[in-house]
């Protein structure tokens, strides 16, 4: 069977671990050559490179801090140079900081917003300029969250960043369609990754989180990557400006009164 991403090159930001690493592996499995990204190249990147090469795909790793616009612009430009083109941008890098609203510092706010929203904004802008200049189609998938839709007390900055991502995607779907660029969000619920380590270590809290999820379990990174792969592929050729929730039913669940 022909591979879905034959002759396609994908950049996945924040892909040393967690959902980003799963996306890189999934896209490579489906035939894409892959550019990985993280703050620092380390043993996690080395392992991923070995795994992706074993699939017969080309792979490279570029260090860049997604919260810095200068580094993001350089990242996209370098990514294009590595394999001579870029077809798919997965804006996955993201973080959250827990703090009650009254205690949020400007530094914490900036860290979350600069990575989760500003980084995505300018990565996508740089990619779109490239697509326009080369008259190439492109696909963008943003890693949003159920918190682009539902509240999360003590994570106000995170919710603002993902809520912003919702509107960025809606807006750009219209603005970039004439350039043949599709853009969508994937919104995971509670997925077992290092970002949720505190939750996974706290049995009582974990139990109450699972009670709220209709499917009664955490999501797996591969389940998020499968939806990313669909949206990045031509199978989703008529999908743009949407959010796909991968949340076990969490966002719109019915609560017994
Ligand atoms: P994770 O912490 O395991 O992985 C995130 C990766 O992004 C890490 O490798 C981290 O180093 C990298 N990263 C963070 N800031 C960066 C920066 N400034 N520059 C470069 N790399 C950076 O988290 P994850 O769970 O895999 O999360 C991935 C994405 O999914 C995030 O955008 C997160 O908000 C979103 N998300 C996760 C969940 C979940 O339950 N795991 C739920 C909803 C949304």
How are the SSEs placed, and which strands pair?
Layout: E1 9-12, H1 18-29, E2 33-38, H2 43-54, E3 59-63, H3 69-83, E4 88-91, H4 106-134, E5 138-143, H5 156-176, E6 181-188, H6 197-201, H7 203-211, H8 221-232, E7 243-246
Parallel strand pairs: 1-2, 1-4, 2-3, 4-5, 5-6, 6-7
Quick synopsis:
With 257 residues, the protein is of the alpha/beta class.
Helix content: 40-55%
Poorly predicted residue ranges: none
CATH first level: Alpha Beta
CATH fold-level name:
Rossmann fold
Bound molecules: nicotinamide-adenine-dinucleotide
Going by CATH, the homologous superfamily would be NAD(P)-binding Rossmann-like Domain
N-to-C order of helices and strands: EHEHEHEHEHEHHHE
The domain count comes to 1
| CATH architectural group | 3-Layer(aba) Sandwich
Total strands: 7
- Spatial gap, N to C terminus: 50 Å
Shape: globular
Strand order of the largest sheet: 3-2-1-4-5-6-7
Structural class comes to alpha/beta
GO molecular function, one term: glucose 1-dehydrogenase [NAD(P)+] activity
Keywords: Oxidoreductase
Enzyme class: oxidoreductase
Protein name: Glucose 1-dehydrogenase
Would you give an account of this structure?
The protein has 257 residues and is an alpha/beta fold. The chain has helices spanning 18-29, 43-54, 69-83, 106-134, 156-176, 197-201, 203-211, 221-232; strands at 9-12, 33-38, 59-63, 88-91, 138-143, 181-188, 243-246. The longest helix is centred in the middle third of the chain and has 29 residues, at 106-134. The protein contains 8 helices and 7 strands. Helices cover 45% and strands 14% of the residues. It has a single domain, classed as Rossmann fold (3-Layer(aba) Sandwich). The N and C termini lie far apart (50 Å). The structure holds nicotinamide-adenine-dinucleotide. Nicotinamide-adenine-dinucleotide (NAD) is lined by residues 14, 16-20, 38-39, 65-67, 92-95, 115, 143, 145, 188, 190-191, 193-196. Nicotinamide-adenine-dinucleotide (NAD) binds at residues 14, 16-20, 38-39, 65-67, 92-95, 115, 143, 145, 188, 190-191, 193-196.
């Amino acid at each position: 069977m022909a591979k879905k991403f034959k002759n396609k090159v994908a950049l996945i930001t924040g892909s040393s671990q967690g959902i980003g690493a799963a996306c890189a592996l999934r896209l490579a499995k489906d035939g894409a050559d892959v550019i990985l990204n993280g703050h620092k190249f380390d043993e996690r990147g080395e392992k991923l490179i070995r795994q992706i090469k074993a699939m017969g795909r080309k792979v490279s790793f570029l260090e860049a801090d997604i919260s810095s616009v200068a580094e993001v612009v350089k990242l996209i430009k370098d990514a294009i140079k590595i394999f001579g083109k870029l077809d798919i941008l997965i804006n996955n890098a993201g973080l959250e900081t827990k703090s009650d609203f009254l205690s949020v510092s400007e530094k914490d706010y900036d860290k979350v917003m600069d990575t989760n929203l500003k980084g995505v904004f300018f990565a996508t802008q740089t990619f779109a300029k490239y697509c326009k200049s080369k008259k190439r189609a492109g696909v963008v998938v943003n890693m949003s969250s159920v918190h682009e839709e539902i509240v999360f007390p003590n994570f106000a900055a995170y919710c603002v960043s993902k809520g912003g991502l919702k509107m960025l995607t809606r807006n750009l779907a219209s603005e970039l369609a004439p350039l043949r660029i599709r853009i969508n969000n994937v919104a995971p619920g509670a997925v077992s990754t290092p970002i949720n380590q505190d939750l996974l270590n706290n049995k009582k809290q974990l139990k109450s989180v699972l009670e709220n999820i209709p499917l009664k379990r955490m999501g797996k990174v591969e389940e998020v990557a499968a939806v990313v792969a669909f949206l990045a592929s031509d199978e989703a050729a008529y999908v743009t400006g949407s959010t796909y929730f991968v949340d076990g039913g969490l966002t719109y669940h019915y609560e017994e009164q």
